[in-house]
Design brief:
With 246 residues, the chain is an all-alpha fold. It has helices at residues 4-11, 15-23, 42-56, 61-67, 72-110, 115-126, 129-139, 142-154, 157-172, 181-198, 202-214, 226-245; strands at residues 2-3, 31-32, 38-40. Helix 5 (72-110) packs antiparallel against helix 6, helix 5 runs parallel beside helix 9 (157-172) and helix 9 packs antiparallel against helix 10.
């Protein structure tokens, strides 16, 4: 038998928490001393371990209290429901992470906070996330869509910052001749990043560029606005023409 202090020390659960579990009848001690001190047996320890495990899985105390004595089949159903809920929460957190990254990306690129743009980015992830997926369906087969999604998921902070830097530099030279050395250096950097993303999959790379060209200016493809897309297409075309002449 364990006193409440011994049970607290054995399990790491505070006495205050054990008092609360007793109060809400989630974990009642099996017996007490003549002086009225609570005593817990091994069965109580097992129940506490179950409570702690289920709390870790995300169940509320009310759910735990209601379901602890249910059958294995009922628990299997409860766990499946809990897993489904956690996956949905995980998806929402991933979308929030992408939205925050998009906002940070916009601030780094614009070098200021443009609230209308930030609002559009957040709205995209709140309500219109499937817009991009529907666009992809028009250009890519199912296998290609999965590969695109995988490539986007694999992008790390360094990739985003590198693209932000390149596009920032492109914006600064939009009034220059695409044949100039400065623009051609940016074209080289641009295509190196593209190659790093797509390797030798020229078909996928070409289709992705078609999507961006057709929908440049949409917040879904920010910051690839029409001016940047057209300018870089000319610069890259010149770059490849020069390579063929060498």
């Amino acid at each position: 038998m364990y006193s409440i202090g011994q049970l607290s020390k054995k399990t790491g659960v505070t006495v205050r928490t054990l008092d609360y579990y007793d109060e809400i009848k989630l974990l009642k001690p099996s017996s007490a001393t003549e002086g009225g001190h609570r005593l817990y047996n091994e069965g109580d320890v097992l129940r506490l371990q179950q409570i702690l495990a289920l709390k870790y899985m995300g169940f509320s105390l009310e759910q735990i209290k209601r379901n602890l004595n249910e059958s294995v089949a009922t628990w299997e159903q409860s766990l499946e429901q809990q897993l489904s809920m956690i996956r949905e929460q995980q998806k929402e957190l991933q979308e929030l992470e992408q939205a925050l990254s998009g906002v940070l990306y916009s601030i780094q690129l614009e070098e200021e906070i443009k609230w209308p743009l930030i609002f559009d980015i957040i709205r995209l992830f709140q309500r219109d996330k499937d817009v991009v997926n529907h666009l992809y369906e028009k250009y890519f087969n199912e296998e290609e869509q999965k590969k695109i999604m995988s490539l986007q998921t694999e992008r790390n902070k360094d990739d985003v910052q590198e693209w932000a830097r390149i596009i920032h530099d492109v914006r600064a030279v939009l009034n220059e001749n695409p044949e100039s050395e400065k623009v051609q250096q940016l074209a080289e950097q641009w295509m190196k990043k593209v190659h790093d993303m797509f390797d030798d999959d020229h078909v996928l790379k070409g289709k992705m560029w078609d999507v961006i060209k057709d929908h440049s200016g949409s917040v879904a493809f920010y910051p690839m606005d029409e001016e940047i897309v057209q300018f870089m297409e000319r610069a890259i075309h010149i770059m490849y023409e020069r390579k063929e002449e060498e």
